Amino acid sequence: MNDRRPFIAGDHVRHRPSGEQWRLACDEEDRRVYPAGYPETRAEASDCDLATAATHAQRIAMLREVADGRGDGYRSAIAKRQLAELDGDYARRLVGLELDRMAARAHVIATRTAVLRARYGRDLVRARTHGELLDALDTCTATSRFLEAT
User: Fold this and answer.
1) What is the largest CA-CA distance in the chain?
2) Domain boundaries defined on the chain
3) Mean pLDDT across the stretch 22-48?
4) Pick from 28, 30, 71, 75: most CB atoms within 10 A?
């Protein structure tokens, strides 16, 4: 039976086969570790020994750094998911930004639709999908600009 705790992001581990010391980018997952740095790689957790344990604050900081970093690699995806599980504020911030963008876009579409319906009549804009609505808005806006220019 293995009594060791799983490795976490920010831990420094010694990889026995290579003799290298690594700082982990993500928490251990499926008995594998994901070191920070380039190139992205992974190794069996059983091949590693803990050199320096990370604190909870270091863990969160490392996961944020990896999640917010450039690149779409698997470490970034793992870090984002692990953060969402650990750090509700971070997850709410990511979701909140997306919801704010969607709400702003919905407000613009609703406002344009109301203006176009008032100008051109209710029957002009009968879009069933978001794409159809955008197409209708583009057509109506172009028509409106043409009529205002003449």
Assistant:
1) 84
2) 12-86, 98-149
3) 89
4) 75
